[in-house]
Amino acid sequence: MMPARMKTLARPTMPGIAKRTRSVWLLVTLALLAVLCALSVTIGTRDVAFADIIAALQGHVETIGQAAVALRIPRTLLALLAGAALSLAGAVMQGVTRNPLADPGILGVNMGASLAVVIGVVWFDITSAYAFIWTAIAGSAAAAVFVYTIGSLGRGGATPLKLALAGAATSVAFSSLVIAIVLPRSDIAGGIRSWQIGGVGGATFERISPMLPFLLVGFAVSLLSARKLNSLALGDELASGLGERVAVARATAAFGAILLCAATTAVCGPIGFLGLVVPHVCRLLVGIDYRWLLPFSALGGACLLIAADVVGRIVARPAELDVGIITALIGAPFFIWVVRRQKVREL
Prior knowledge:
Blueprint: H1 4-10, H2 19-42, H3 50-57, H4 64-97, H5 109-124, H6 129-152, H7 160-182, H8 186-197, H9 205-208, H10 212-224, H11 226-232, H12 236-241, H13 246-268, H14 274-286, H15 290-315, H16 323-342
Helix pairs in contact: 2-4, 2-15, 3-4, 4-10, 4-13, 4-14, 4-15, 5-6, 5-7, 5-13, 6-7, 6-13, 10-13, 11-15, 14-15, 15-16
């Protein structure tokens, strides 16, 4: 066994960016998040006065403007939580699989949750929010295990390319199954199709509150996995030599990511590409140390999803575009760029 002091000395310092630079980016990101939250409660199909915003924040809904702001507040909170959860889950999945293309959507986790929820609704008539979330967790976990098993077959084990291909194929297959299950049920088909796009419209505090315990556990487990992900980034053999239990570290971090994906998908629907785009941008800002990358990914994801929601309200006035459409328009070209730039290398 390696003594504790030797383990500390043997563990390489993560290369990256100066702490002062990271602190500056942290302040910039927090300021941007505050501005976007303010814009989210201000901008919509109806223009509102500043006095209405202040009154609505104090709980008043006497005027139409105040009522409009009151509806935007939980919507903003849901976008913040969902964006943070999906981006953090994407960063964790990239660390667990050492795959630059890992993302809850690309690896089939979101569609696994979606398929499970649709089966629960159509075949078992589930209606409660907690039933939705637990069903989504079961579907996400099953999809993650299935994709990792398929990607591990053959020579070389679970390579980034095989995981990406297995995840893409699984997502397509699950999406087809969802359509096949919903097609005969014209009474609920419209609602499920709208939910499948992915959005935060119609958010209420009653819809948000059931997901909070699951998100809290998911955030805690994922953020506490940062040091383990730093060890895994060195390679399995070196991480094991430093005393890390590789299988346990991977399973623990993946559990946190699955909780975040499942709870978010159950409420918002499968929102894609967020977990791919944000972690890559954050690496450019704060480096590869997961102790910084994970919280920055959460903050960056919250910023991006709130911004996407605001843009969706503006571009199609008086109608709206769901955030799932906006993130897909951003994420698809970014996905192609990552494939060309990284050439599907391991992280």
